[in-house]
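call fold target=N-acetyltransferase domain-containing protein
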Amino acid sequence: MDTTCQCLHPGLANDAPTLRPANDGDIPFITEIYNEQIRTSVGLFLNHEVSEENRLAWLRDLQKGAYPCVVVEVDEVREDGVRSKRTIGWCNIGRYRSKAAYDATAEISLYIHRDFRGRGLGSLLLGSVVAEARSRKFHTLLAMVTAQNTDSCRFWGKHGWGQAGVTREVGWKFNQWLDVVTYQIIL
């Protein structure tokens, strides 16, 4: 898989990003990104931030259910010159519904830190997780996207995901009713 992209950012080393399975060490970064989305966007229908314990339980549930969660990380250079790894996004699939007939269907989620959006990282993550879903014999993936999140709607369409339906005014956040668009790909 080609993991090269133009993702240089002040304080980052010149190395290409790395994709790998999520682990416990990613939880602080995942929680930071997730909470930023809760605070600032209509992309998550949550009104209160979550704890690291919440995200750790979420990751454990994914791992227990054999659902992939892939992170993208970059080398960061601190002011003192020390290099360290920083997780800047992730993509995962999870259970769509609990009834057995849905076992080959999964819901996909993808998040990138706000400072790294528009650099191809989402496309890298998506490709990796879709390939993993195929290898695990999933039949279809669904992405539930707030219709007002036009950048995300464009992203899924650009990657060949078809619009499978719209549910109107199903979420209330930031004093507005929100529609949800379901994007689907058959693997």
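return ok
The chain has one domain: 18-186. The CA atoms of residues 104 and 138 lie 5 Å apart.
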